[in-house]
Amino acid sequence: xxxxxxxxxxxxxxxxxxxxxxxxxxxxxxxxxxxxxxxxxxxxxxxxxxxxxxxxxxxxxxxxxxxxxxxxxxxxxxxxxxxxxxxxxxxxxxxxxxxxxxxxxxxxxx
Amino acid sequence: xxxxxxxxxxxxxxxxxxxxxxxxxxxxxxxxxxxxxxxxxxxxxxxxxxxxxxxxxxxxxxxxxxxxxxxxxxxxxxxxxxxxxxxxxxxxxxxxxxxxxxxxxxxxxxxxxxxx
Lengths: 110, 116
Hints:
The structure holds 2 protein chains of 2 kinds. Chain A is mainly β. Helix content of chain A is 0%, strand content 58%. In chain A, strands 2, 4, 5, 9, 10 and 11 form a 6-stranded mixed beta sheet that branches. The radius of gyration of chain A is 13 Å and the shape is globular. The interface between A and B is medium-sized, with 20 and 21 residues.
């Protein structure tokens, strides 16, 4: 069974810092991996989608990489801002089911 | 741990018919449930936010008259796809937010809908 883990569980950084969130999964047979942002009481917002054949995707200050063979993905956030404070989730799509990570709670301190 | 179930896990229906998908929180009460869908090779996208006892809030571009959401109890929300068309074929997934105040969401296994 696929297991998705995110490290760290919580992260607090000063504004302006670059940071990396990690996601690992146990089964490399995936269709794609997605990164989401969750604000308190809100639904998930899709940030980046990486297909299994891709290595990375970029959107603005966000860059996500995927290494299927090692079962890892990273989300890089450049020049962090207080508005980036949220919980970040990664999810693996196996084609039949989504497996969500445990999330990283990010706080960016002004 | 918190468990969310969805029924059915997959369904095939004919164009023009309606399909109901259930989302249940099995061991906790969920004031808020979320419905998402994913088209092939696209991101999982939020469709609507469902609060128990009140009308759902739909995201822009989602037709509320086509995707009827009912959240009649703290453990059950239903999504009915009315007059389904082949373009509604998608993967639908729900999540439930616990009442502990942590805002953590627990996800169902999803329902794959195919409209022929």
